[in-house]
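Please predict the structure of the following assembly.
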Amino acid sequence: MADIIDDLKYRGLFNQVTDEEGLREAMKKPMAFYCGFDPTADSLHAGNLLVIVIMMRLQKAGHHPIAVVGGGTGMIGDPSGRSSERQLNTRETVARFSERLKEQLDRFLHFSDGEATYVNNNDWLGSLSAIEFLRDVGKHFPLNYMLSKESVQKRMEAGISFTEFSYMLLQSFDYLNLYERENCRLEVGGSDQWGNITAGLELIRRKGHDDPAFGMTFPLITKSDGTKFGKSMGGAIWLDPKKTTPYEWYQFWINASDDDVVNYLKWFTFLTKDAIEALAEEVRTHPEARQAQKTLAREMTRLVHGARALEQAEDITSALFSGDVSKLTGEEIEQGFKAFPQYACPAEESIQLIDVLVNASIAPSRRQAREDISQGAIYINGVRRTDLNDALTANDRIDGRFTIIRRGKKKYTLIKFK
RNA sequence: GGAGGGAUAGCGAAGAGGCUAAACGCGACGGACUGUAAAUCCGUUCCCUUUGGGUUCGAAGGUUCGAAACCUUCUCCCUCCA
C-alpha cells in the first residue's frame, strides 16, 4: 500500500499537517483519527462527501475512523469560514439532524461492525457545566491566543458573539476527550478547521499529555470557474436520495466540465493513479467521448446509492438523452421517472397543451407556456410540438397512462392519467 | 435631536409630467452550435388569446386631460452634524 500521505498529496487533498515526519512515523501503525460533521441540515451534501471519502482512504490505509457528529457544538455554531453569525437551531432540530447524519455516515464507514466509531459530542458537551468548562478548558487558553485565530480576526469587524467566539474551546475539548477515551491521535478537516484543530492540540498539550497528537487539513475544493462546488441549478446536491434522486446525482457528476473532471476523479474516487492518468489522457485526446465524466458518475453513484440505483440512473439517462422515450414501457417509466416531477391529470379526451403545461407547473403562466411552445422548447414523448393550439389526446399516452413532457434540453415531467 | 440623500421589475442601475410596461448590465429561461461541456450567437424575461387590453415604479392620499416622475402624510434605509 502506497503511503497514504503521498497518495493524498497526489490527489491534491493535502493542505497542511502539524508534524509531517512525526505523523508519517506514527502512521506506520494503525491509529485512530477523527473528523467532525456539523448537523446543519438533515442530510450531508456532495461537499461533505469529500470528507467522508478522505476518511475512507485513511480507513483503507489501516486506520480507525471516528466520526464525530456535532450534536453539542451544533448548538453553538462554528464561526470558521463564515462572515456572519449563525442562526441557532433548536435542540430538537439539531438532534434530528444528528440522527440523519449518523445513518448516512454509517453507510460509508460501517459503525455497526466496528470498522469505525460514531460519537456525538453532545454526549460530553451536553452535560458539561459552565463552571467545569471554564475551569477545565477555558483556563488553558490565553485570550491572546484565541483572539489571534483567523476565524475570530475575520469576524472582529462584522461582529462575533461570545458564543461563537467560544466555539474553538468546545471543539478542542472534543479532541481532548477522544484523545483520552478513544486513543485518538489525529484530527482531520478542511483548511478552515486548522485553527480549531491546533486549539485541540494545544489543550491536549496543556493537559500534560506527552504522547504526540496530530492535525491535518485538506484544501477547500473549488471549481475551475470559481463557482462553488456542489451546487446545481441553484440547489445543493444531497446524499439523501429523497432530496437528490440517484438520477440527479448521476447527472450532477456526468456534467462535470473537462477542467474539473480529473480533479474530481482524484478527490472523490478510489481509482488508482494509473487509472486516473489514463482518463486524464482521454480527456485531452477524446474529450467528446467523456470517458472521464462517465467513469466519475458511475463511481460516485455506485458509492453513494449502490449498484442497482446506478443501473437505473444509466437506463434513464440513455432513454432521455437519446430522446427516444417512446420506446419505454409503462413499467420502465414508472420505475425511472421517480426522479422527475409528476402530475396527475384527469384522463379526458383531449386537453389543450397550454393548459397541461400550466397545470403541471411546467410553465409558470399561460403566457410563458405559449412562449415555450412557439420557441420549440416543448417535446411530447420526445417529439417537438410547436402548435399553440395543440392538444393532448389518447394517442399521446404511452401504455394508455403516461405522457412524457420535456421542456428545454433536460427538464422532464411525467403526466399520469387516471 | 438637527441637516441632507435614497426606496424603480429576481438583483444592480437609468428615467425627473405625455415619445415609458419602463434604457442598460447581471441573473434566469428558451433556441442554434456542440460533447448532456465551455465559449459564442440569437430570442424571451409583470399578467392576459391580439400590431389590443389589464395591473405596475416603498404605502396612502392629492394636483393634472395625463404621473414612476409634482405636492402632502406615513414607513423603511443610508450619510453627515450633535
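Chain A has a mean pLDDT of 87. Residues 225, 234, 251, 254-259, 261, 286-290, 293, 317, 320-321, 354, 365-368, 370-372, 375-377, 388, 407-410 of chain A lie near RNA strand B (CB under 10 Å from a C1').
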